[in-house]
């Protein structure tokens, strides 16, 4: 789940941006998005909670403009991705002072949103917490997803293959997918396997090679998996 805030006093522009964001996530399945809209920078700052991945700020707003909103925002949240919305590109140059990572030029088009999110989402993935909690044999253990090679499901048991060993938990594929769904580098490739794209050494025909393991890629998931792999390697 990604959380995005749109701070824009023009209701029509905000609706267009929201529709394009939702369209992007619908077309690039695997993650969901929650979009909140605000028409007032002052209200946004006074009620801000630091749980947004991306904040999109209109530069020209009444009460508190985008630049001053951004300055106050950076005092309470240094990590989220900040994007300016503007009619004139030269205004966005000031964004470097508040560590902005991009801007959207009105009128907003889907291609602008697509380009922006394809660049920002890998950055968001890298800064998110990376631990998952496993329960096996009465033991609770935290592992870093960067240490996870792949997950193998057999009936109601799941084996997590990691660089520190294998851990077998009593769990279903549905429960496992729910636990791992925020980690986009972990992708299901068949009814029985989820692999970490970080460790994919080769994907040829219907076989994925992860270290010494050769894992089957199902026909129904082949196109989606290879698309995810290409995007990951590109990022």
- Termini separation: 19 Å
CATH architecture of the largest domain: 3-Layer(aba) Sandwich
- What is the count of helical runs? 7
Share in β-strands: 25-35%
Features:
single chain, 235 residues, alpha/beta, Rossmann fold, OB fold (Dihydrolipoamide Acetyltransferase, E2P), 2 domains, 5-stranded antiparallel sheet, 7 helices
Secondary structure: elements and pairs:
Blueprint: E1 2-7, H1 11-27, E2 33-38, H2 41-46, E3 54-58, H3 66-76, E4 81-86, H4 89-92, E5 102-105, H5 110-127, E6 131-136, E7 139-144, E8 148-154, E9 157-162, E10 165-170, H6 173-180, E11 186-188, E12 193-196, E13 200-204, E14 207-210, E15 213-216, H7 222-234
Parallel strand pairs: 1-2, 1-3, 3-4, 4-5
Antiparallel strand pairs: 6-7, 8-9, 8-12, 9-10, 11-12, 13-14, 14-15
Helix pairs in contact: 1-5
Description:
The protein has helices at 11-27, 41-46, 66-76, 89-92, 110-127, 173-180, 222-234; strands spanning 2-7, 33-38, 54-58, 81-86, 102-105, 131-136, 139-144, 148-154, 157-162, 165-170, 186-188, 193-196, 200-204, 207-210, 213-216. The protein is an alpha/beta fold. Helix content is 33%, strand content 33%. It has 2 domains: 2-127, Rossmann fold, CATH 3.40.50; 131-234, LytTr DNA-binding domain (OB fold (Dihydrolipoamide Acetyltransferase, E2P), Beta Barrel).
Summarize the model shown.
The protein has 235 residues and is α/β, with parallel strands linked by helices. The chain has helices at residues 11-27, 41-46, 66-76, 89-92, 110-127, 173-180, 222-234, and strands at residues 2-7, 33-38, 54-58, 81-86, 102-105, 131-136, 139-144, 148-154, 157-162, 165-170, 186-188, 193-196, 200-204, 207-210, 213-216. It has a five-stranded parallel sheet, sandwiched between helices. Strands 10-9-8-12-11 form a five-stranded antiparallel sheet, covered by helices on one side. The protein has a three-stranded antiparallel sheet with strand order 13-14-15, with no helix packed on it.
């Amino acid at each position: 789940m990604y959380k995005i805030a749109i701070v824009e006093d023009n209701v029509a522009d905000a609706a267009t941006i929201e529709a394009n964001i939702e369209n992007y996530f619908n077309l690039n399945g695997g993650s969901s998005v929650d979009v909140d809209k605000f028409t007032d920078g002052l209200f946004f700052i006074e009620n801000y909670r630091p749980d947004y991945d991306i904040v999109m700020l209109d530069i020209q707003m009444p009460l508190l403009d985008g630049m001053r909103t951004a300055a106050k925002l950076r005092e309470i949240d240094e990590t989220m991705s900040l994007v300016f919305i503007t009619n004139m590109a030269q205004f966005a140059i000031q964004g470097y002072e508040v560590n902005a990572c991009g801007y959207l030029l009105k009128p907003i088009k889907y291609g602008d949103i697509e380009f922006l999110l394809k660049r920002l989402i890998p950055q968001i993935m890298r800064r998110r917490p990376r631990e998952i909690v496993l329960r096996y044999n009465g033991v609770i253990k935290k592992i870093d997803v960067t240490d996870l090679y792949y997950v193998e499901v057999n009936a109601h048991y799941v084996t997590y293959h990691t660089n520190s060993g294998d851990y077998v938990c009593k769990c279903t594929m549905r429960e496992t997918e729910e636990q791992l769904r925020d980690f986009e580098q972990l992708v299901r490739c068949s009814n029985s396997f989820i692999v970490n794209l970080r460790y994919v050494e080769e994907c040829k025909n219907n076989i994925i090679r992860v270290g010494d393991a050769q894992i089957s890629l199902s026909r129904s998931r082949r196109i989606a998996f290879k698309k995810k792999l290409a995007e990951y390697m590109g990022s």
